[in-house]
Amino acid sequence: MAAQAPAATGLAIETHELRKEFGRIVAVDALTMTVPRGEVFGFLGPNGAGKTTSVKLLLGLSAPTSGSASVLGAPLGDVAARRRIGYLPELFRYQGWMTAREVLGLHCELARLPKSDWAREIDDALDLVGLTDRAGDRTATFSKGMQQRPGLGVALLGRPELVVLDEPTSALDPVGRQDVRHILAALRDRGTAVFLNSHLLTEVERVCDRVAIVDRGRVVAQLTMSELTRERGVSVRVTGLADAADGIDGRFGRVSVEVEWLHAEGIAEAAVPGLVAALVALGGEIHAVVPTRQTLEQRFMSLLGVAQDPEDGEEPPGSPGSAGSPGSAGAAGGARP
Amino acid sequence: MSISSILIIARLTLREAVRRKLLWALVGLTFLIFGLTWWGFSRIADVSPVSGPVEMLAVSQILVMLAFMFSFVLAMTAVFAASPAIGPEIENGLLLAMLARPIRRSEVLLGRWLGLGSVLVVYALVAGYLELGAVDLATGYLPDQPMMAPPYLAAESLVLLTLALLFSTRITSVAGGAMAVVGYGLAWMAGVLEGVGQAFNSDVLRIAGNLARLILPSDILWRGCAGALTPNREVLTGGGVANVDLYRFSPFSGSAPSPEWLAWCLVWIVGVLALASWLLRRREI
Question: pLDDT digit string (tens) for B151-195?
Fold first, then answer.
């Protein structure tokens, strides 16, 4: 039976001290996190952080060594709860001798959807992932990027309450990635929780409401996207002043000057016009006012304790070491596609 | 355990057998063997009409050899179809998306067994009876219990299918397939040794042979098939077999297994499937 769209309340996933050992190797160590329903949740971490193992634990594909967790209110591995979960594996592969339509049909059967709904479910999924024209082709004839599409379609069958996507855009071209962003937005709009395991930070930054950053099997931070990137500031290109910072007081945050750029970190948005007015009053000529913020990548690297290559930081002109990237504020707070 | 889940996987396996041409290859082979059998036995009948005991003995021996070859083909088909059925599909990711659905690993295993087993049983029965019919048509000879031979062959293929599926849960398809084939060969050899032990009253050989049959009871079922095809005492003695009892211990002869052995075959299949299910459940994927 098709799952009903859930109310966007309660928790889709809750884990407490979840641990998984493979012999002497600890893949997941004390994973504690909560994923609300109706949100797109990013699960980030470097390679080997235990992300895919965590996904397998959540889906009951692997048994935890210790700890507890619930998914959609059911204990891990609950067979009935899997009817309400869609999953796209990182290592996606489907029966190559089947057509895309047949693969979706098989999963309709496995998901125990009513037979009367199959045709509609399959057509909707094919349309959503842009495979209507190739529905009758064997999946073995699909390119790797194209193979990810029926996989995504499979994960969306039956309007699941939770969709778990393990690197869903890893094989897709930019157009495919944009399609996935649209699909994720549509899922959120209908109240579906999405657990997005990805290391593509720009993708996560654009679609997620909340992220957990995991390192060595532990969650090192779990924050909303706006909390993660809230460290805001402004950079002002000003000339005509011997020392632009001289005469600018603490109302405008932490101020520093580098060549023609004055940086005000942590400045309140409402105080920006006042800063500009103060610089003009001091005799300065304003050439540019550029909002800055800390990118997800910068925050990710700092949480993992990794020194960031200055060239990767998209620093404002002439201001290495400043708080963040000018011109990227439009993406702050989890801007939507 | 959900029967409907098992049937979903069994149907998927049957569809795969059809689409991957396994079924068509078996159907083609069946007709080829039927044609060759009919042609070959017709030539024998042309040379010398199968009416006397010597001719009947000759035909019966060729028939048993043919059944042995058919038993080998069935065993290899079972092993090569089952060896890649579980483990490689986990390793290449094919089963990941399926196992995230409301289906248990044991149901996938049993569905695979049921699907492949159906193909093997139908093939063994249809091809077996067709061959017997071809021999009867060409020579007029039929062994005493012709109806029992194909079911024994079908059961033997199920034993080997079960063994190969057990290996498939933990071992690579190449290694698992090789081990199953070696197991089949050793079981046959053990049957030969047991026969020699019977003929020469050697308890050691008898015990060793029976122990091997307990571990892998495929040879018990082959002996049942051979027994069903073995000519009766009149044909044997008329054909010049001086010691009929000794003849019955030949690797290409046999007798119907006792009900206890047949029950053991059933228990063995159920037990090995349970072990395979337990191993698969504990496997990290």
Answer: 999 999 999 999 999 999 998 889 999 999 999 999 988 888 888
β-bridge pairing A210-215 and A40-44: parallel
Q: Is B252 within 8 Å of B189 (Cβ atoms)? A: no
Q: How far is B100 from chain A (nearest CA, A)?
A: 6
Pairwise CB contact (< 8 Å): A109 & B8? yes
Mean pLDDT of chain B: 88
CB-based contact, B16 to chain A, within 8 Å: yes
Alpha helices in B216-258 (DSSP H): 218-229, 233-238, 244-247
- Cβ contact A89–B16 (<8 Å): no
Q: What is the pLDDT of residue B248?
A: 61
B285 close to A (CB below 8 A): yes
**Where along chain B do its domains lie?**
3-282
Nearest CB among B19, B20, B101 relative to A107 is that of: B101
Q: Chain A contact for B104, CB < 8 A?
A: yes
Interchain proximity B97–A154, CB inside 8 Å: yes
Residue range A11-227, CATH number: 3.40.50.300
Q: What CATH code would you report for A230-318?
A: 3.30.70
Q: What is the pLDDT of residues A4-41, one digit of tens each?
A: 333 444 799 999 999 999 988 889 988 899 999 989 99
On chain B, the residues whose CB falls within 8 A of the CB of A94 are 94, 97
Q: In which order are the strands placed within the sheet that holds A254-258? A: A254-258, A261-265, A232-239, A285-293, A325-326
Contact across the interface for A80 and B102, Cβ inside 8 Å:
yes
**B1 contacts chain A (CB < 8 A):** no
The ipTM, to two decimals, is 0.83
The reply to whether B20 touches chain A by the CB within 8 Å rule is yes
Pair A211, A306: CB distance under 8 Å: no
Q: Is the dihedral of CA B165, B171, B174, B175 positive or negative?
A: negative
Residues B217, B223, B224, B229: what is their CA dihedral angle, to the nearest 10 degrees? 160
Tell me the C-alpha distance between A8 and A291, whole Å. 33
pTM reported for the whole predicted model: 0.81
The structural domains of chain A, with segments of one domain joined by +, span 11-227, 230-318
At A295 the three-state DSSP class reads coil
